[in-house]
Amino acid sequence: ELNQPLEALECFNKMINVKKYQRNTKLYFLKGMSHYKLNQQYEALECFNNVLKIDVNYSSAYFNKGNSLYK
Q1: pLDDT, position 1
Q2: Quick one: pLDDT at residue 3?
Q3: Are 30 and 59 in contact, with CB atoms under 8 Å apart?
Q4: CB within 8 A of 17, min separation 6: which ones?
Q5: How far apart are CA 41 and CA 20, in angstroms?
Q6: pTM
Q7: Which stretches in the chain have pLDDT values below 70?
């Protein structure tokens, strides 16, 4: 079944523990989106900030960081 943000978070957390994925912006971004969907704004902000530490030009991370701050 699709649309399962808690299960998605479990997968993302496992992947982040693998060294070669620790700087993967897409992984942190999707983790942030899962937190956002669960109304976990502080956790989402942390993820979007991690994306921006890796890539300051990741525009979707800025957009969703703003949404999290607004919510």
Answers
A1: 79
A2: 87
A3: no
A4: none
A5: 27
A6: 0.92
A7: none
Spatial neighbors of 22 by CB under 8 A, at least 6 apart, are 16
| Collapsed DSSP state (helix, strand, coil) of residue 22 | coil
Token digits of residue 67: 């949404």
Query: CA 39, CA 57: separation in Å to the nearest integer?
Result: 25
Tokens 């704004």 identify what position? 41
pLDDT for residue 57: 98
Q: Are 68 and 33 in contact (CB under 8 A)?
A: no
Other C-beta atoms within 10 Å of 66: how many? Answer: 11
Amino acid at residue number 40: Q
Q: Which of 52, 50, 48, 54 is nearest to 69 (CA)?
A: 48
Helices (runs of H) and strands (runs of E) counted in the chain: 4, 0
Specify the pLDDT at position 26. 97
